[in-house]
Every structure is written in C-alpha cells, then in structure tokens.
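Researcher: Good morning. I'm working through a list of sequences from a screen, and I'd like to move beyond sequence-only analysis. For each chain I'm collecting a predicted structure so we can compare shapes side by side. This is the next one on the list. No need for commentary yet; just the structure.
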Amino acid sequence: MSAVVLASDRLKVTITPDVGGTITGVEHRGLGASVLGTVPWLPETTPLDPDSVRDEPVWLTRFTGGWPLLFPNGCDACMHAGVFHGFHGEASITPWQAEATPNAVRMTRRFRTVPVEMVRELSVEDDVLAIRERVRMLGDAPVKVMWCQHATFGSDLLAGPFQIETGARSVLVDDRADPPANPLRPGVSSRWPMVPGKDGAYDLSRPKGRVAAGACLHDFDAAWAAIRRLDNSVAAVLSWDAALYPYAWFWIELGGTMEAPWHGNGRVIGLEPSTTWPASGLAEAERRGGRLLSLQPGMEVKTVVRLHVFKPRGPVFGVNAAGRALFRA
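Model: Good morning. Structure tokens for this chain:
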C-alpha cells in the first residue's frame, strides 16, 4: 500500500505501511507547521528483509527522520536466543498489512523473528494523534523483546530557539557513544535538566550549537516529553504509559555528525519511549542487566501513545488524560 494520509480539521498525518508502518509526517494544518524530523538524503521507499539490516548505515537508507517503531530489537544487530535480529528490529523496515479510513488506519504484522502478532491502530482526534498498539504472544515458550517508539522531531519545531520539557526527573548519559560533537560526559547520571558536561554543567532542555549526543530520560513523575518553540509558535507533546515504557531514549542530532550520510546537515531530536535501557540491542542489553520485556505464552499487551501538536501558551507542565498539554494558570 502506498502512503496513507489521516486528517482532521487541525492535523494531517502521513504513514508508510510498506516500510515499517513509519509515520513520516505530522503537520498542524491551522499553524502550517510540521513537527517530525527529516533527513538530508532521499530515503529508499522499498522494505528490507530483517536479516539484511546488519548495521546502522543499511537501516538509515530507509530512515525518513519520522517515527518508526522498533520491535523486537532496538539499536545494535545481534544474535539473541539463537535468532538474528537486525539493527532496530524487524518492525521498523518490513511491510505491514494496512486497512485505512479517512481518519484512522489499522496495521498488522505477524513477525518472523519472534512468535508475536502486533496490531497498531492510528487515529487523528482533532489535534491529537493516538496510537493504540496490541501485542499478542503466539509462541509456546517465553521470548524477550525490546519495544521502542522511535519518535523524532524537527522541521518547523526546531526552526527557531526551542525548549525541551518533560516529566522525567533524572537523566543518564549514554556510556558507549562519545562522538566529537558530544558536550556531555559519557555515563554520568544527573537530575533533569542539568548534566555534567565536558566544559561544565550542560542544560539538556536547551541544547545549542552543533551537538551529537545520546542519553536516557527516566524516573518519571509523569510519562511525557515536549518540544516547544520559545516564540510559542508551535509545540508538540508526547505521552505514554510509564509502566510499559519506563525509559525514553533521548537522541540529539543538531548538525553534529559530519560523517555520511549526515554530513553535518541533520537537525533531529528523538524522544523515544522504550521498555529497555541500555539502547544497545537485545544481547548487549541483557548482558549488562538491562530490563527486557518478557512475553509469556498467551500473553497480550496493550498500550496507547499520544502526540498533541498545538500553539502553546507558555511552558508545558504536564498532560491530561487525553494527552493534551497543560499550562500553568
């Protein structure tokens, strides 16, 4: 199936079922503003076999900068429980069966790498995108998986000075990746938003200059994260179930990666609810004592993730039950 477009009077959402069911665009129609990330290359539009995705460069050929789903693996390709899992997992680059209506799409995939079926129902409700996912375990023996919403933001949202706001109380900096443009000290833990940096304290809520860095948000008072333009022209807030996703991978690419295919032209921030940390693939995460999601025979897991795109009235301090941003009076 070619790209699916969902729309309300306020929101337009574009999805590509053939390549991972990726959400490639979210635009607020009234504000004329797009909020998902883009990449400085032309992505391929054909799906990949999961066995062929053995490293990040191959996976990036299909990456649009939008919002893929990572399942049952996240980050490094690996062998786990006798099965090869490609970089960022089967769900992110293989086709999904899709049934679409004007304001909703239902996508289904029965996975090859794990005995699991997943159903994803995406709907647009005024200025909120709701993603309802259901995982059903079909196997006779338990399996361990990683499940991550690889939501990346950019476009008009990062076209001017911005601030990141979240219900996370703590942040842990990635201890494995330390690119030249990383201002953070690898492996340090701190209270949000101030983190020990290589040149003193660094404010993660307002990253500036050329930056390439990775961290993990955790210890959530409430599970949400927002990016707001400081001129209050547009904002987006993501909210989720912290019981399933106790972590949010936090990826900053602001012109900091000079290697191909970025060439210093990337401008993307990832706020990515996840079951697991570290973000190092199933095998390495398990070796390091990370939390994996264990699916038992007959088990069913349901969750809802929401994205609210709106014109803000100042700093966001939370979300309501419908996933809409809350502001201080």
